[in-house]
User: Fold PAS domain-containing protein from Methylocystis iwaonis.
Amino acid sequence: MDMSLTGSIIADEALARGQIGLAVADERLFVRQRFGPLSAWLPRVGTPVCDSPLLVHMEAALARLREKGGEIVLPSMRAALEGRRVTISIGWSARAQSYLIVTTPDHGSEQIDRLLASDRREKQLLQQQADAAAARLKVADALYRDIVESSGNLVLRFTPDFRLVFANRAAAAFLGKPQDALIGEALDGLFPAQGAPWRLGRGAEGRSFEMSARDAKGRAFWLSWDIRFLGPEAGGEFQAVARDVTAERRLRVEREKAQEEARAAAVAHERLRIAHDLHDTLVRSIVTMIAEARLIAKKTSDPEAKKALAEVDAHARQGLWEAREAIAQMRETRREDADLRAIALAFQARWPDVAVTLDFAAERPLAAQTESLFAAILREALRNVELHSGAKNVRVALQVNDAGAELIVEDDGAGFDPAAPALGHFGVLGMRERASLAGATLEVESAPGEGARLTLQIFGV
Assistant:
């Protein structure tokens, strides 16, 4: 096949697909020809090229281009082409006595525009979700206050050797025993607490702490205890009053979760904004500097000047590479936010009454996307432990090898029936959906009173 014919066919297809646009203007700056839809930003044939908003007031610059030669490059211009960004290159052909105008898509800027548009949509969605969550929290808070005001606290009195001498009806109902049967019972046996917070001195006025506990039906609760020393006149006894703060903790954790997501969205938005600003300022300036340095190098005959300009060109290209690397890094998720060990240790630091065991065996690092998935599942699983299980022990295990990765989170808490989740609780369902979207599998093994075991697996990481 004739190579010139092949080249003509390829050029025609590129023009038709909008991969390139070509146009010709005469020395009077009137459009003579337009080829391809990507040149549709130019005025129609027979009219001045500077009638286009992108070339307005450029008559003098185009005249200098005709006299001195070279090229004018207009990067990242938003043309009237369905909002697309393009790069425009204009050169003068002395042989044809015409201007050649080449238009190409600016895919980098289009990608940033798409990212920013997606970020705006996500921000709007997060705001709507936050508003809905705030409304639910307000209703839940009102319901919680009503429940607390209409129910009694647990009240206990005990001797210095931590034996009960009194328990009110609410405490007896919680423990599932008659009030009289509780007299003489060991406090540690009824309300076991890690770290022995009951071991208080006689000056323990106003001492308070929170602990997890299970009622007679095995349900998990969080109780906030306030302890007061009644003095020698009361036989050296102590009084402990417990308030059910399960709903408060749930609200607090949900609020922290919403704030965490809002902070992550804000950080992502700011990083994208900075990346966009770098592209529109620093990168564009470096590209312009490179073009101008090369233009000057072509015009000068001074060897020293050519050498200096070559060094400028090399430094500028290095700077351009570094700027683009910086922009790429700005778009990446912060790895410290997905550190599984740090997430587990932070949970242990927040709730020292829960013993956390870590069992990590990673032969290779996790891919960033897999690490983010595992981090999100681990956070949600630990939130569920805190809110619902009343566990005393939690084990977090991670295994990574060439075959894939596996995360296990198990506890000795109250457990539940995975086939019949509690009304209004969507944690397990949300984790399953997140895992499925990422190509992973999530299994939950549990039964009432038997704790829970969550296994997340993904292959070929």
In short: Residues 142 and 271 are 38 Å apart (CA to CA). The chain has four domains: 1-105, 106-150+246-332, 152-244, 335-459.
